[in-house]
């Protein structure tokens, strides 16, 4: 049977001298599903010669999934345009974070497997939610976003800040960067009726987003593929300033690890690498990614069945501390941030 790492071989190119068996193709299909890469991988499979393709049964299943992804992308694009118009009508600028905004960088955006809509809205949090609350159901308020039910088919998260770092000293620098990038965020470009930020912003924001998910529950290859296309799109003159800022934010080694994964999986050429790849840390990270799947959904270590808040806290803490060897500037702060955030919520002092 093929391992999940054979999915990487498919992404880099199938060896015509070694056709895969039906069991091996099925294993790759399952791995692509776990990593939310069924759309982009089928585009590779259908370009293979007939003697290298999987069986008709697998091809039809893969083709059906690709069709659903294309249809879902059309729907999410439509909803992103509509919610942009809604908040715009209330007097707020907005942009779509990651997702449909990053899809524009793909050779075939319609094949990127979409999720919900993360809309960053400019304006006072309470003011934004008060106005939305007159027409829509405002749900749970998280630290950085609020769930707002606007559509019955696509979930929408209204972001108040793009993201954060648990290390308070590095997070202060990050938030300063976000504030200074306001025009790069809200006045950059538009696709299918919604706004998206400049790629220089995405180079910082998307890496932090991946970083946080590595600590919290895990991250899959879909998010790394996003970053692969972000790296390829960064203008040459912007690469050094971005690399310097990543180091200033304590993200230098993580950037080097992701660069290694992008090179190994997506064959990212040296000319697009803004930092030198870290082989040792990158291999560790790649193993975590392949084990966890999309947002850690397939990582059995994340299965915390106890309802006891303290047991759940300590298990989550144990997960984050696995990374302390590689990312010591962030890992120790994760449980501290979790405890602080929990106390604030219980005291009703903020989310």
List the helices and strands and how they pair.
Layout: H1 6-12, H2 22-34, H3 38-45, H4 56-89, E1 94-96, H5 99-102, E2 117-121, H6 125-133, E3 137-141, E4 145-149, E5 156-159, H7 168-180, H8 182-186, E6 189-191, E7 194-196, H9 199-216, H10 221-233, H11 236-248, H12 252-266, H13 279-292, H14 309-321, H15 333-347
Parallel strand pairs: 2-5
Antiparallel strand pairs: 1-2, 3-4, 4-5, 6-7
Helix pairs in contact: 3-4, 9-10, 10-12, 12-13, 14-15
Task: Walk me through the structure.
This protein has about 350 residues and is of the alpha+beta class. Among the domains are: about 200-305, no CATH class; about 305-350. The chain contains 15 helices and seven strands. The protein has helices spanning about 5-10, 20-35, 40-45, 55-90, 100, 125-135, 170-180, 180-185, 200-215, 220-235, 235-250, 250-265, 280-290, 310-320, 335-345; strands at about 95, 115-120, 135-140, 145-150, 155-160, 190, 195. A hairpin with a 6-residue loop joins strand 4 and strand 5 (about 155-160). Helix 3 (about 40-45) crosses helix 4, helix 10 (about 220-235) packs across helix 12 and helix 14 (about 310-320) runs antiparallel to helix 15. It is globular and about 60 Å long. About 40% of the residues are buried. The mean pLDDT is about 90.
């Amino acid at each position: 049977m093929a391992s999940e790492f054979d999915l990487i071989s498919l992404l880099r190119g199938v060896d015509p001298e070694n056709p895969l068996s039906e069991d091996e193709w099925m294993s790759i299909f399952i791995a692509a599903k776990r990593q939310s890469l069924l759309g982009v991988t089928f585009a590779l499979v259908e370009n293979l010669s007939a003697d290298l393709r999987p069986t008709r049964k697998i091809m039809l299943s893969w083709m059906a999934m690709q069709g659903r992804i294309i249809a879902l992308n059309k729907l999410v694009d439509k909803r992103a345009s509509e919610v942009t118009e809604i908040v715009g009508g209330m007097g707020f600028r907005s942009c779509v974070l990651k997702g449909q905004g990053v899809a524009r960088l793909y050779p075939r955006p319609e094949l990127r497997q979409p999720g919900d809509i993360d809309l960053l809205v400019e304006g006072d949090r309470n003011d934004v939610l008060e106005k939305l609350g007159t027409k829509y159901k405002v749900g749970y308020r998280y630290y950085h976003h609020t769930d707002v039910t606007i559509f019955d088919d696509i979930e929408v998260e209204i972001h108040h800040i793009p993201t954060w770092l648990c290390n308070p000293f590095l997070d202060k620098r990050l938030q300063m960067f976000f504030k200074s990038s306001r025009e790069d965020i809200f006045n950059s470009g538009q696709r299918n009726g919604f706004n998206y930020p400049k790629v220089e912003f995405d180079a910082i924001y998307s890496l932090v987003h991946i970083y946080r998910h590595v600590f919290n529950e895990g991250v899959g290859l879909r998010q790394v593929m996003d970053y692969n296309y972000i790296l390829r799109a960064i203008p040459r003159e912007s690469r050094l300033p971005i690399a310097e800022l990543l180091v200033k934010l304590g993200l230098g080694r993580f950037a080097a690890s992701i660069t290694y994964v992008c090179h190994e999986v997506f064959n990212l050429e040296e000319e697009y690498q803004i930092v030198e790849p870290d082989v040792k840390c990158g291999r560790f990270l790649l193993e975590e990614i392949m084990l966890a799947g999309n947002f850690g959904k397939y990582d059995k270590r994340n299965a915390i069945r106890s309802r006891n808040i303290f047991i759940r806290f300590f298990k989550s803490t144990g997960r984050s501390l696995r990374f302390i060897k590689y990312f010591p500037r962030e890992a120790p702060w994760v449980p501290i941030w979790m405890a602080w955030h929990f106390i604030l919520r219980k005291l009703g002092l903020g989310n």
